[in-house]
Amino acid sequence: MSLVILSAALWAAQTAVAVAMCLCAWRMARGPRAQDRVLALDAMYVCAMLQLLAFGVRTGNTLYFEAALVIGVLGFIATVTLAKFLMRGEVIE
């Protein structure tokens, strides 16, 4: 019984995160300003990280957890870099 509940919860979570990723992609395409697009990109990398974590729980493979960690780190760096570029107009001082 517990395995059935876990499987259903993971399926529902992955479906919800996939819908959130579609909405983020829509915001990236339709965003009126660059700041909206950066926030959509930030939310999309978090959703991708959550998708990998849920898939890792489903399969029991630890490789997906490491990939989620890499996506999180690279996404954070990309967000900081884009925010710095939008604020100052340059990345390297």
Draw up the topology in text.
Elements: H1 2-30, H2 34-59, H3 63-88
Helix pairs in contact: 1-2, 2-3
Give structural notes:
The chain has 93 residues and is mainly alpha-helical. The protein has one domain: Helix Hairpins (Orthogonal Bundle), CATH 1.10.287. Helices cover 87% and strands 0% of the residues.
CATH topology type: Helix Hairpins
What is the 3D form?
A: elongated
What is the total number of structural domains? 1
Strand content: under 5%
Gap from first CA to last CA = 58 Å
The counted number of beta strands is 0
Quick recap:
By secondary structure, the protein is mostly helical. The chain has 3 helices and no strands.
Please give a handful of descriptors for the protein shown:
Helix Hairpins, elongated, 93 residues, mainly alpha
